[in-house]
Amino acid sequence: MRVGFILLKMKNQILFIIIFVLFAGYQAISQNTFEQIISNSADQKINQIIEDYDGNFVMVGQMNNSDTFFPGGYAIKIDSAGNLLNEIVIQPINTYAYIFFNIHFYNSNYYLLGTCTDSINVEQKKIWYVKLNENLDVISQRESSLPIGKWFSYFNSIIDSDTNFVIAGYTTKNDSIQTYHNDPAFYKMSLEGDSINSYFLSAPTKMRYAYDLLEDTSNTQYFTFVSRFENTSAGQKLILTKEFDSLGIEPVPLGITDYYSPTYLTDTSILMCGHGTPDQSELYSLNVISVNLENQLIDYNHFEIGENMRDHPAMYNGVSKNGNNIYIGGTSNLDYYNPFWSTFDSWFHLVKINSDITPIWEYWYGGDAYYFLYSILATNDGGCIMVGNRYDYETQNQERDIYIVKVDSSGLVTWTQEIPTDKPEATVYPNPGTNQINIKNDNKLLDFELINLNGQIVIRQIVNNNLNTINTESLKPGMYFYRLNDNKNKTFVTGKWIKK
Fold first, then answer.
1. What is this structure's pTM?
2. Do residues 285 and 334 touch, judged by C-beta distance below 8 A?
3. Percent of the chain, pLDDT > 90?
4. 326-366 pLDDT, tens digit each
5. DSSP E strand stretches across 379-444
6. DSSP string across 61-81
7. Tens of pLDDT along 121-146?
8. Is 289 exposed, middle or buried (0-12, 13-18, 19+ CB in 10 A)?
9. Sheet of 445-451, strands arranged across
10. What is d(CA 345, CA 348) in angstroms, rounded to the nearest whole number?
């Protein structure tokens, strides 16, 4: 196995990028795959990722200033093989929080949307718009004021058919009724960052959220997806005109709620993922539904790691479709009581599904630290890229690293070496498995090695031409890689094995 360590220094900041080039298929493929940890001395978070015309990936979020601890807007650009091309931190001097939530790619420019705080009046929060060229140079930026005392804690956005940015999210405020009072909010601005319209709601209810939106296929209205909007803990679809006038509200089937990531499956159906609701759906699973435009249920399924561990939908984008490739993503074993700095071991959880929500495959990535998935993206080569955080409480003190995994359409991360196209000379099963691996071997004697993501051999055993069973009960759940070598150390078979 090759493990490459690359040290890059850019713009007076040092990034340690650990690129794990792993695994193999049995034939040459054109899909790039890679696995990276991007580490910095300051805390980092990536919220969303896009792919441009050249197959490069640009992702945005925040990086804390190591002196002031206030976050700055953070953007990273990598190529299709995972090599770092550029990175920027935008944080004006003597200012407070600057954070990017979303990124769009349009007419060869990158458009970044987020939130910031006025440098003089800290009660004045703003929507932050930044336009970048392909080199991540700033072309223009705008700041649009929000109602005094309110700030966006979360939003998602689209570019609609009128080429405007439309935002759905929720604002937070402190008031005499409640501390940290959340309200749904909607905002529209032009492609150049000019404010067009807004709709800020206020009510005595403490927790009300808007997470996502779509434009109707008629291009005359918006479907916005909210939670706890009208005295219910379940999810709802709020229908708004282009001017943000309310046209009605409908319940989401099976009580699915939060982090919906709605995506058009067809012109007449919408796919989404969210939390479950007691007595209606699976509470701590990735609950996936498809509905028609009238919000009636078409199909339903749920995915989880099991064993009393909780699954949580990806924070910003957990549903992504590109052609016939449909992916669902989330975090397995999320720590709900300490969601960012946990001592748990957790995983990125990725499922490739058919249009009827039946699974094609289901894999987990990570497991040796605390992983938290923020966004997935179905890529133009048929694969999928996942981005989020990795945190190891034994070596880090509230300073998260960025974790990126790009897989091919089979969910695999590949070796760089060529593998013979002949029929495999050994079969490893079940996969995924739990407490044992079975190996059916056509050769007389082979050396079996099981390797973790750190490149360490955790099991080595000689197998013969009979059915062999290897005990894996002592291993942590997660992703491993195996290889079978002959007595001349020639590799016959390689693969990935998942312990659930």
1. 0.80
2. no
3. 62
4. 999 999 999 999 999 999 999 999 999 999 999 999 999 98
5. 384-391, 401-407, 426-429, 436-441
6. EEEE-TTT--EEEEEEEE-TT
7. 878 899 999 999 999 999 999 999 99
8. buried
9. 457-464, 445-451, 478-485, 491-499
10. 11
The span from the CA of 243 to the CA of 220, in Å, is: 10
Closest CA relative to residue 345, chosen from 305, 378, 315, 381: 305
Q: How far apart are CA 18 and CA 116, in angstroms?
A: 31
DSSP code at position 317: B
Q: What pLDDT is stored for residue 4 in this prediction? A: 29
Q: Are 443 and 426 in contact (CB under 8 A)?
A: yes
Residue 273 near residue 313, CB atoms below 8 Å: yes
pLDDT, tens only, 239-252: 999 999 999 999 99
Average pLDDT in the chain: 86
Do 391 and 370 form a contact (C-beta atoms < 8 A)?
yes
- Give, in degrees to the nearest 5, the angle at Cα 323 between 317 and 326: 45
Least confident of 344-353, 385-394, 489-498: 489-498
Tokens representing 37 are 């940890």
- Specify the length of the chain in residues: 500
Residue 52 amino acid letter: D
Cis peptide bond N-terminal to 432, omega within 30: yes
| Percent helix, strand and coil across the chain, each to the nearest 5 | 0, 55, 45
Q: Can you read off the two tokens belonging to residue 90? A: 């935008």
Judge contact between 37 and 17, C-beta under 8 A.
yes
| Span of 94-103, 235-244, 377-386, 463-472 with lowest mean pLDDT | 463-472
Rounded Cα distance, 374 and 395, in Å: 22
Edge-to-edge strands of the sheet including 57-64? Answer: 44-51, 57-64, 71-78, 84-90
Return the pLDDT at 176: 59
Other beta carbons within 10 Å of 278: 10
Q: Which residues of 213-238 are buried (b: 16+ CB within 10 A; e: fewer)?
A: bbbeeeeebbbbbbbbbeeeebbbbb
Q: Which amino acid is at 498?
A: I
What's the token pair of residue 350? 């990725």
> What sign does the CA torsion over 480, 484, 490, 491 have?
negative
For residue 253, give the DSSP letter: G
- Pairwise CA distance, residues 326 & 270, whole Å: 12
Residues facing 120 on adjacent strands: none
Question: Do residues 146 and 171 touch, judged by C-beta distance below 8 A?
Answer: yes
